[in-house]
Predict the 3D structure of the following.
Amino acid sequence: MATAGKPKEEGAPYRLGGMGFQDASGRRLSYDSYLHLRELLDLQQGLTEAHDELLFIVVHQVYELWFKVLIDELESVRTAIEAEELRVARHALNRVKVIEDLLVEQVAVLETMAPQDFLTFRSELAPASGFQSVQFREIEFLSGLKDAGYIKAVDGEGEARARLQRRLDEPSLHDVFTVLIKRRGVTIRDLYRQGDRHADLLELAEALLDHDEGFRLWRLRHVEMVERQIGDKPGTGGSTGVRYLQSTLGKRFFPELWEVRSQL
Ligand code: HEM
């Protein structure tokens, strides 16, 4: 739901002054200070002198920033479904899908790295791996794929694990969608067979399916790129690498929405 863009109150780094927005030290706000660019551009400290390491770090950081936006959007989808504001939910899901398309497309940037160049710094990375991305698991849990086994694999100590535990305990999109259609007294099969009678629910179901598909397309694109970079070597995170990633391709957030297609 849209909320007015009024200045933050307590603890806000900026306040409105006579000359427009000012930062905490009273300086007039600038592009740099608003975006905290000095801090942001100082966060790419590689472990080696390898030329491609900067690209590698930036690409991962950009993914994590988009994951942050996705989590925020998925939370608003959940709130909107709970409040039966289905148009709002679809609007946010539309943004989710556009961002996911972008995430799929960005994989190609890493493919411009030659595997032999990647090897010049890869060994330094172990045991770090995308496998430990907390936000990636948050997206999975929030969407409906809850697997408590991943909690112990995540990076960081108590705080990250506690966050994931909370995601495990709170309702997922799958949960709130199931409650919604039950409340309306329809089954998923009804939705698809009598689409005209439940148009708003059907459109929501298709938007959720878009999200499911968007995420899976990223999995497919990622594993293709990984094979191109490391062949069948094990991952830095300690898994079998490509073989492990292929085993995740069957994961769906809303399996029922895929199954119903066979029943039409
Ligand atoms: C040269 C580039 C990359 C390579 C070679 C690579 C390789 C791998 C491998 C082998 C795994 C399996 C776990 C392990 O044993 O490490 C994995 C998992 C993962 N990677 Fe990557 N990766 C790359 C880039 C990226 C990027 C840019 C992201 C973006 C965030 C990413 C996110 C993930 C995630 C989220 C997982 C866990 C997937 C799951 O468990 O379903 N990876 N990666």
In short: The first strand starts at residue 14 and ends at 17. DSSP finds twelve helices and two strands in the chain. The domain at 55-263 is CATH 1.20.58.480 (Methane Monooxygenase Hydroxylase; Chain G, domain 1). The two ends are 34 Å apart (CA to CA).
